[in-house]
Amino acid sequence: MNRKLYITGVIVLLLALSTGCGQKPGTSSPVDNSAEGNVQGTTTTTDTTTAAGLAEGGNGTDAGTGEQVPTVQTVTKTIETYYTDDEMLELTKSSVEIKYTEEQEKYLAALQTLKGSADTDLFALWKNVEFHSAKLENGQLTIDITLPDEARLGAGGEVLALDALKQTMFQFDEVKSIELLVDGKQRDTLMGHEELEHPMTRN
């Protein structure tokens, strides 16, 4: 009786071992691997979409902060700016491009063209002037500059410089008058020759 029970126990044990050896390792792993693969795929897709959105300048999410990145558009506009010849006899009109992202930046960008560039052989009357700000409010454009000694011109040059400034800025229809300040203050004259109006208006 005991011998039969012993033989039966051995057979059961052998069958159990045989079944265990027949199962391949990791048979339950495909479910876990599939779940992990889905998480990684979502992260990759999100990062790719974010990078593409930021690269194109569109609305996207900053991967570092999670905040929305606003759309930034650069506007390119062709305007007329004014220079003179070496003898300062008259103004010469020149077409140039300006770039800006906000409407208020347009005026300072236009003023900077008066300083000239390497692309022109003409004399820039405002070459050595520092333009600090240009703000339009109720049709009046307030410009603040610094005028170093090397930027000062003779009487004829001063007249041309002011005309160049007015013609350049009055091409914007919304600019009705110009208030020119030197280091934040009104001056009776810009360079010591020509009376400076406050404000300068369209002719």
What does this structure look like?
This protein has helices spanning 2-22, 29-55, 105-113, 155-169; strands at residues 60-61, 68-69, 75-84, 91-100, 130-137, 140-146, 177-182, 200-201. The chain is an alpha+beta fold and 203 residues long. The strands form 3 sheets. Strands 5-6-7-8 form a 4-stranded mixed beta sheet. It is elongated. Mean pLDDT is 79; it is low at 21-58.
N-to-C span:
128 Å
Rg for CA atoms: 38 Å
Please identify the structural class as seen in this structure. alpha+beta
Strand arrangement, major sheet: 5-6-7-8
Report strand %: 15-25%
Mean pLDDT comes to: 79
Shape: elongated
Largest β-sheet summary: 4 strands, mixed
Order of helices and strands: HHEEEEHEEHEE
Residue share in helices? 25-40%
Please give the count of helices: 4
Poorly predicted runs: 21-58
Please give the number of β-strands.
8
Layout of helices and strands, plus pairs?
Elements: H1 2-22, H2 29-55, E1 60-61, E2 68-69, E3 75-84, E4 91-100, H3 105-113, E5 130-137, E6 140-146, H4 155-169, E7 177-182, E8 200-201
Parallel strand pairs: 6-7
Antiparallel strand pairs: 1-2, 3-4, 5-6, 7-8
